[in-house]
Amino acid sequence: MNERLESSNEAVASRRRKQRSKGPRAMVTAALATAAFALSAAAQEAGKPAPQFAVDDAAGARAGEFRTLDEEVQALKKLAVDLNRDLFLLEEELLFPASTQVSVFVSMDVGEFFALDSIELKLDGKDVASYLYTDREVDALYRGGVQRLFAGNVRAGEHELVAFFTGQGPHERAYRRGATLKFEKGIGPKYIELKISDRESRLQPEFIVVEWE
Known about the structure:
With about 210 residues, the chain is α+β, with helices and mostly antiparallel strands.
C-alpha cells in the first residue's frame, strides 16, 4: 500500500516538473509568434501603395466658371467705357457742330511769379465761363495738364474773347490781369488757348491768348 502511494506521488511530481519546464518555453514561443505577426503586418503595410486622393472635378469646374465670369465682366466694363466715349463724342457733335464750335483751353508754365486762383471768360461782352481752382488742379496744370475751360457755338464772323486771371503775384500780393483776343470764326472748329507763364525779364507773370492752327 505504501509503495503504491509513493509511486503515485512521484508521478504527480513528475507532471508538475514537466509543466513548470514548459511554462517559460510557452511564453517565449508566444512572444516570438507575436513579434513575427507584427513584423509581417509591418511588411504588408510597407508594401502597400501610397494612398491616392481623388481630384475634386466639381471644384475645378467651379474655378473655371469663375474665371470665365471674370473675363466676361472685364469685357463688359471695356464695352461700357467704349460706349460712353462714343456717346460723349456724339453729344459733342450734336451740341457743338464743327461749323460753329469754339473751345477755350488753359495751360500754365509758372514758377515764382504767379499762383492761380480763378479765371473769368467773356465772349463778345458776355460772361461765358468762370472757374475757381483747387491746389490739386493748379498742380496738375503745373505738371503740363491742359484744361478745357469753355466750349460753345458762335456764328461765323469776327469775335472778341477776354480772359481775367486772379491769383497771387510777386511777393504774395493779390494779382488780377486781363488778356484779349480778337479772332475770325470761319468754317470748322476754332481752338483758343489761354497761356500763363513767367516773364523773367520783368519778374512778372505773362498772360497770352493764342489761336491753335
